[in-house]
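During the second half of the funding period, the structural biology subgroup turned its attention to how the target accommodates small molecules. The most pressing case was NAP, which had performed well in the primary screen but for which no bound structure existed. We therefore specified the complex as follows and requested a full 3D prediction, including the ligand pose.
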Amino acid sequence: MNKIIIVTGASRGIGREIAKELAKKGHTIIANYNKSEEKILELKKELEENKINIDIFKADVSTRREAQKLVEYTINKYGKIDILINNAGISQFKEFTQITDEDWEKMIKTNLNSVFYMSQEACKNMIHNKKGCIINISSIWGIIGASCEVHYSVSKAGIDAMTKSLAKELGPSNIRVNSIAPGIINTEMNKRLSQEEIQNIKNEIPLEKIGNSIDIERCIEWLIEDEYTTGQIISINGGWA
Ligand code: NAP
């Protein structure tokens, strides 16, 4: 059945794949972007050439006001939110002693506050409807920790804690809340890694390969249809951890 779905950070990488594939399946997608307008317009055009529509909305979801605008826009236009996919995120590779207050704040605002703002704004509508599903994209590093990515790991561990707590609080309102924790996925986020570093990572992964955005999207499709999974952190990492 057609669902109204917000995907944050849908202009590139994992979010783009999620928005594209769910739109192809007939869902109504509100694809959020912030800086990459050209890329989201490119996706919209590509889908329209195949007679598939996608709604796009610019918002910096690390701010309360813009997250609120994205939710208001969706409810005013479509009347409800069935699914919220909190995917927008940034990463930064820095030694712990070099992380500035600004780096820390930007990381927490973008990766964690955005999930707080979007979930809080959207769940009011879901509670009213007594139905909803929130899917957060966290990370393997939130579970096992990453050297030189302390602020990133903290932001993702925070998302997982929010997922588990919110699942308990919103369960009685028939709202499921889950995290997907990817390992290494082939997107621009990992462009700083050399071929040699990628090979070394592959050597550590039992399935001996890097993941693709579609691997995350397939799990999203399953979570959307599921009715009894909540409060879970689902690892998709080729068996890495
Ligand atoms: P990506 O290719 O760098 O794309 C990041 C997306 O997030 C872009 O669409 C970007 O939009 C959006 N974004 C960033 N800040 C935003 C903001 N303030 N407001 C709205 N949108 C914002 O990254 P990715 O690899 O697809 O990662 C997607 C998610 O998966 C992230 O949460 C990431 O932490 C997580 N993850 C990725 C991996 C991996 O290996 N790739 C592994 C584990 C977890 P604009 O460009 O339009 O600003």
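Two results from this model are relevant to the next phase. The chain has a mean pLDDT of 98. The longest strand covers residues 175-182.
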